[in-house]
Hints:
Distance between the termini: 36 Å
Low-confidence stretches: none
Number of strands: 11
CATH topology of the largest domain: D-Maltodextrin-Binding Protein, domain 2
Mean pLDDT: 96
Bound molecules: 1-O-pyrophosphono-5-O-phosphono-alpha-D-ribofuranose
CATH architecture of the largest domain: 3-Layer(aba) Sandwich
Largest sheet: 6 strands, mixed
Strand content: 25-35%
Amino acid sequence: MTTPSLVIALTKGRILDEVLPLLAQANIVPSEDIEKSRKLIFDTNLPHVRLMVIRGSDVPTYVEFGSADIGVVGKDLLLEYGDEAFYEPLDLGIARCRLMTAEPIDRPAPTGRLRVATKFVNIAKRYFAERGTQIELIKLNGALELAPSMGLADAIVDIVDTGKTLTANGLEAKELIANVSSRIIVNKASMKIKNAAIREVLAQLGEAVARNN
Ligand code: PRP
């Protein structure tokens, strides 16, 4: 029986830098340099495996609908998207960071509702609702750290890695919402139909992760 074809969805940037060495240890190597190419889908050394490179926030969508069998995506985006639509069998332990609330240093307590700017609207809604804090949610798509100093928001919910972006914008991290790392997600139907091929990739990646920790 021929091995079924597998599509693995990746994202450019930090996750890609850290996941390519893990994939190489699992014997999956792109046929050309992904960083230098404008292509979005790549063959690999394995005839049945292709890699696609898309925005992180689109990885769950591609995997939910089965256009990609496997995805690599940050836990932050999974928490935002919801994790019911696919399996999440492996924590790769890479691209670690924290999802946090942050606000201007020594900010006085706001008088009305707390205005929170974020691109993680579902996470922020859930987080503040669980605490009984009423907020006004302001959806932004990037450069969140600017919102408080420009008078748009009292606080933000964002990814913090080194904390340098917060400091550079006069903000301080406050509450930890979640620890984040990159996860493997798998389409539910693919897991049934292509079980052996997917288990093989997961086993190899699992061993690579264990070796690196
Ligand atoms: C993330 C996040 C912060 C920054 C934090 O942005 O939104 O801006 O990293 O990193 P630091 O704590 O090390 O300063 P990223 O560069 O991932 O781009 P994004 O705005 O597309 O999320």
